[in-house]
User: Fold this.
Amino acid sequence: MVKFGIEFVPRESYWKIMYYVIQAERGGFSNLWMTDHFINRNVYATLTTAAMFTNKITFGPGVTNPYMVNPVFTAQAIATLDELAPGRVVLGMGPGDKTTLDSVGVEMQKPLAAVQESIDIIRRMVSGETVAYQGEVFRTAGAKFVFKTRGRIPVYVGAQGPKMLALAGKIGDGVLINASHPKDVEYAVNCVKEGVTAAGKKYSEIDVAAYTSFSVHEDINKANKAAARAVAFIVAGSPPQLLERHEIDVKKAEEIKEALKANDWGRAFSGVTPEMISAFSVCGTPDTCIERIADLLKSGISQFVVGSPIGANVREAIKLVSEKIIPHFKA
Amino acid sequence: MDYDRLVSFIPAAKREMLSDKLVDVILASKNDEKMPSRLANTMLQYWQRDVLESESGMAVLLEAAITLEPEKAIGALNELQVRDAAELIKATLTS
Assistant:
């Protein structure tokens, strides 16, 4: 049976985020993903608060990266969280985004190796090992915690490109596929399966999530308006081949990118077309969203993540998902 | 402000609707910096136990809403015809 996850961006005050987190847990969501960007509030401080105000939801950073924080500190953070909320902690690890890394002068070198090595180090640290590691990107010389860890913590790999998706299938306990359209998710799942096969695993052993941009409202116009903001950024960051796969005019996408660069939000958001919203988000009334989620499930995902913006009114949107969408798939 | 006294003006039948409106006011507020962490944590504890509609939960919601958005809190009370409470808040805020 499909699990429902929800993503929050800790740009709002912790108490607003926690209100929504408690509401989501009560509403039937099984996974909570907290984004990790230095421009927002700290992911681990926020997750610690979530641990204190919840008692069953599984949670973790969605996703962190190996460049901004050394893997030993990520291991330390999740091991500490796991002590606070035993068995409820997972780690989402991805390569990060180049724009953010560039803004702090950090080079995204060898992303595949960086993700794989960081996960190796984190798993071994969390298992209580003394880690002497010589990788292409990371080295440790006898790193070990002085506190007792609880053991293995599931690692999800956040991925979009074919090589990272295959790596995710190969090494991950789960995969966070950064896509919202059935075509993209199907393509991604096939890449993940290649990695799973290469590792001699079964596809059913891993939790594969569609990490979507999501917007629900009873009024389709309000749902679209909320989605357009998120979709503008996705379109601007999408490579031409992805845009072409969805028959989106590359020139229009370029115009949105230029408008965003100029901080001309009105022009950027109004440039988002219904085709772009359909390609890069799950958006609409509860019934429309149910149809779209059902399509995504055919691709073989086991978790559906309700990602930003969630809806024009987050509280109302969580209520709609909890009362109308989740029950449809649990019935 | 005596929040327990304010709550006494609210008929039990209107608590659920008022609680809903006050939560909307609180979550939509842009005055986050006015929220004391003590009050925020208390509100979350009540929400976690799902007792925001209890008498003491309503007192916490009223305090939070009045702290963040006094005019909107008064508006919510007036919408539900809880005029005594609205008048008491107005009088306290202007005194």
